[in-house]
User: Fold these one by one.
Assistant:
Number 1:
Amino acid sequence: MNMPVDVLVIGGGPAGIAAAIKARENGVENILIVERSEELGGLLYQCIHNGFGLQYFKEDLTGPEYRYRFIQKLKKLKINYLLKTMVLDITHDRQTLLMNDTEGVIRLNPKAIVLAMGCRERTRYNIFVPGTRPAGIFTAGTAQRLINVEGYIPGNRVVILGSGDIGMIMARRLILEGAKVEAVVEILPYIGGLIRNEVQCLRDFDIPFFLGYTTTEIYGLRKVEGVTISKIGGDSSNESIKDIKCNTVLLSVGLIPENELSLNAGIKLDSVTHGPVVDENMQTNIPGIFAGGNVVHVLDLVDNVSREGEIAGLNAAKYVLGEISSPVRNIKIKAGDGIRYVVPSYISGKKKVNLYMRVSEPREDATIKVVDDTKQDCLYERRLAVTRPSEMIKITLLKGRMDSLDKECGSLTVSCVGGNDNGKS
Amino acid sequence: MIPWKGRLGKMSTRQSADVTIIGAGIQGASIARRLSQYHLRVVLIDKNSEVGFGTSKASTANVQVGIGFKGALRQRLMVSGTKMFDKLVEEINVPMMRMGRLWIARNESEVEILHNLKSVGEKNGVEGMELIDGEELRKREPNISNGFIAALHTHRTGVIAIYELIPALVENAQHNGVELLLDTEVKNIYQEKKRMVVEHDKGEINSRFIINAAGIGAAKIARMIDEDTLDPQPNREIVLVTDKRLKGILNHSIVHVGKGNAYLNPRCAGNLTLGMAGMDVNSGDDIDVPGERIQAILQAVKVVMPVISSGDIIRYFAGVVARPPTEGRDYIIEPSKRVNSLINVRVGYAGITCSQAIAELVVQILAKQGLNLIKNPRFDPYRKAIPKVSELSDEEKKKLITKDKRYGHIVCRCEHISEGEIVEAIKRGARTIDGIKNRTRAGMGRCQGGFCTPRILQILSRELHLPVTSIKANNDGSEVVLSRTKELLTEEGGF
């Protein structure tokens, strides 16, 4: 295979597809999406529940429906893609090594790359759950694939560790399949996923959940036999220490952007998001390499993943067409009090920009502020009734607001202050 | 020799052999391969579903030099055993590296330990030992913290790909005629008309000799003949495994000498294994990993190498080492006191290092007991490894994929393991998720099988013609999934 590629998109999930479509719509002819699994659309394929597209399409779609719309568009635009193809390496000058079962190995030298590899699930080992290593322990997404794609039930008595969205959705799914969900156990004093999943999955199905409990042991020799959980700061009473019998444990304890390829290419990662440090164009520190979606930071909704992929795709196109060049480094965006992180990390101050962020803890009536660190001017302020770490906050900085900024080495700090922390419960 | 046909295959209720080896761990596998050089009928049996599923798999996989452990027999076997590995890995094509070890000390009493180690080594004839100061230590290992003032460098310490080693030894033994019986648990052994009978859960084997290499279960087997056999004193060893991205931060194996201190070992595949000496003495056979132990190891590791953090850990496991109940935990490799046709092989730490020398010793014992050893002229010592796509050049990859396109389809994303490698592992005897993992590394990466497990289930099911619901993680009772969807909603299913 010998094809000229202008924009190479790594990953055919929602971010990658959106990036490719946007690049084509902005005038790039030679685009190639490389996807390692058997189908396009990433994990949307196995997300058979609804709640997708409320923002992007203003409709309530299932994962496969959302995926179908994007794939139709991709096919209409005749964008090339390779399935079951693995990217083995990217170098700092964008040389890319691919492998699949039809072409063998392929070396490409694209003008621009969009990284859209998504994220992977954290395992029990990432959070140091003690105990034995029997069969019957899965990440929630693996269980989701087994049930919704392969058609197998992992077990009939299930404990879910962590209260991420996939975990809560799988709790409901397992109940609908006739399994018993013994408990959802969350170490934090509040649910980790979206409110709508807490209501529609846990509360509506009367699933017991324990907040502020840590898992002190998984036991069982060949197959899981149970878990022991303990209340954080609790005593040795029955209320504090609970033994829950089960034959299956699902973990829903967060996601990590998948950036092993990025590291090989010399891309700088952020220590909080574990994704590439990007500017307002979603360009990484390496010119011509862009990134979007969960590979940059784990987003709450697929709608936001698509939007971010579009920004990356648009700017990859502009890079190929010579409209933008090196990464923007004019103004640094810093996460201040109450904010865990902000994406992007750098802006030019010369155009309207959206900032995506997550707060550190739940609050009510808190205020999001953006302050110019040099002059201590407040550029932006907004009161929010409820803020939760599970839900991303998007704010838009208009160009007019940034006129007074130092465009050479300025910095802005975003913070979330005031209000109270009643939102925890 | 009839290859084993699986759990459903018919077995003769009574078969005969010259030698029955109980336990397909590193010792049993090595002895089986060694005996396959002779005209002998050898049967290797194990209660687990695959070879190397006992103590051997939960090991740091070092090939030691002759120091660090007590016992005259063990030290002698270490010194001779370690030298036998270079030829072995050439023959059976298993990765090994001799990266050397730095035994490090940060105070006078620890330096004293270094001197003792060196004098033991000199007495045992260990070559390639060198005492160095802190400055030289940091030249050789720049990431070691400044507090360390001296080190003993043993240049020949190595590490071997233990997960590949045991299947490779057994494969080669089978190739040379050894019969392997898995999922076969010994119920009793006894002597009958100068023959030894092994009663197991599927029948019995009548042979001239029994080699008891049952690891943690060896005392139980030995007691079937000699009631006075003492139990082992098991140690639980907890090992943390790091992400491969740390490759290169450490060039040697590191042992911070003294109790409660850390050891750090590079693995052939690029991960590090981290542990702590003397942590769980006499812990019984519990393989639970307590949270405080993980933290204790991480703290001890940070003393040596502050750059390693908890975020680098991708897995941890516990293994149990069956230390013999002897002075200095020295090995017992001798005929039973009651019946000399039962040869007990009871070992502990450094078992991998000694394994090839132990196999040699067992052959000598058998000869002394009257077993007629006639060389098999057709013995073939060579075994080819499963191709590793990720390690091949572009040209080699292309060639392999042209021959079998399944080598171009990556199933395990983290370790870049192809479908071709998995299918080949099944052809060579893998029948469980862990069996695939041990032979190919699929599922050993940072996502710990989250992505590839459903795919590997399908491949195992397809290749073995078994339903997915009967595919096991490792042994019986560890089936990965319970049922098809909707089955719990029928009357019999669910609650």
Number 2:
Amino acid sequence: MNNREETVEFLRQEVSTLAGMPAESVSEATRLIGGDSCLNSLKLVELLLALEEFSEDTLHVRFDWTSDSAMSENRSIFRTIGSLADYIAGLSIS
Amino acid sequence: MKTVIITGASRGIGRHCANYLHATGYRVIGIARHTDPEAAFEARVCDVSDYESVSATFHDIRRDRSVFALINAAGIASMNLLLTTPPKTIKRIVETNLLGTIYTSQLVAPALIRHGVGRIINFSTIAVSIGLQGESVYVASKAGVEGFSRSFSREMAPHGVTVNVIAPGPVQTDLIVKVASEKIQAVVDRQVIRRMAVAEDVLRVVLMLLAPESNMLSGQVFHIGGV
């Protein structure tokens, strides 16, 4: 698995646990923010804390949620599992 | 051992709290703008008004699950009429008092959330409530701290972290030795309890807020001396 695939799989498992949903029903298109998100703000923060540790420990990249590059996207990187994984994969390439 | 991070730890209220908490068994990380060789606790150099400085200083504690509290005691004042206050001074006061509090809160919050229970204690002044003349920029920065704390307390409450503000009247520390005694007395005279506070009075409120039993106190401003 490459970094993006590993991140997607990690996020799917975490979201499944945090949202109490079967892992099979969680996909790259699963929304993380907005009205149809499966996570409330409390759970989203828990997800980002876990992703921060996963990024450092497994992928050896630093995931800074507040960096300008994270926030300057025209569309939030936090909108779906796929968009968040894209961002993390970009960090690993740079 | 629980870790407490204290900004403004080189003097005044911050120093008093740092010394007491260190002596009573907390691991204290004291933050100040300059090196502090006399500190009995772990002292780090950081300018809280500089985001990059704060980020670098706190990077290693971000995943430290022993971090229990952040006490933002760093602050500066300039007693001047607004009409005679240089813009650089205005910027420095707002950056240190308001942005410094926001920066440290943002960067330490992940550690507090990971700890599972936490405390953020920010500092304001009764000058906000009485609209003290000649302190408009300082008052504006501290009013910002109060508003920030009330809002941020709601964001942190689900994570078990309380956010409160201590707003003393004049406190007998080395920071006010240059202030004319009649000016200080004029403020004291507007308090409910008309005596100048000492650092011990502030420490008692800090200890109350750190106590496990205070987990239902959040989003509040505690006026020492009363207004």
